[in-house]
Amino acid sequence: MLPDLRSVLFLTYVALLLWRIFSGRGLDDWWRYVLVFGLLNYALYFSERVYLWRQRRRLVHAVRAMDPRDAEALLGRHWLAGQRRVLADEVAAEGVVETDGWVERYPFARGARRAIHASFWASVGIGLALCAVLVLDAHRVTPAVAWSIWGLATASGFVAAFARRMIRRTETVLELSRFSIAEVAPDGSRRVIRWGAPLVLRARRGLRRLELSVAGRPGCIALDFDRVGIDRAVRLVLRYGGFDF
Length: 245
Description:
Elements: H1 2-22, H2 30-64, H3 68-76, H4 81-93, E1 98-100, E2 103-107, H5 110-136, H6 143-170, E3 173-176, E4 180-184, E5 190-194, E6 199-204, E7 209-214, E8 221-224, H7 230-240
Antiparallel strand pairs: 1-2, 2-3, 3-4, 4-5, 6-7, 7-8
Helix pairs in contact: 1-2, 2-4, 5-6
């Protein structure tokens, strides 16, 4: 799509230059047209690279969420060996499902953890920059603008606090066996739900996860869609928890 746009841009500029030549207007300011053409062409090229990168990341996200066996079979059907190896390396860099006997461990994907860290530091940087503006240029800022900056800085603080909470969450590991499911924190603390209990499974689309809880009890274990191999984890929860449809 974007290469076609660059071709259209080139033909449009050629037509414009020819029109100026044959209409007698001349090309005294030709360098302006060349400069604008170069900038627009670079902007389209950059947009194309961003689009292709996003499409690539979406593919990696989809494969990393699959059952490891399904992901391996899908990669094996890729007909270009070079691209297959590159895609397999990118998926492997996101993390793997660890198996220890009857226990399977599902960590958060590396890309998800990196995105949360980026959100945290970006919000912290924006908040500090806004506070610096209030402190250093307080005599130049009107009260209305000062209140607006203060509100934005406060909002950045809330975003940073939420991102910090999510960072701690992405450090947890989901452990799943035939007997129970557990969410294990980095300090070793565990939240365990056994399959024999009366279970409730809720979908939280806004949070991109499923929540498994025991009926009548507070707390839940979240099946976040950003975990590696989450498709297999959800299938096992449906099977072991008696949610088969």
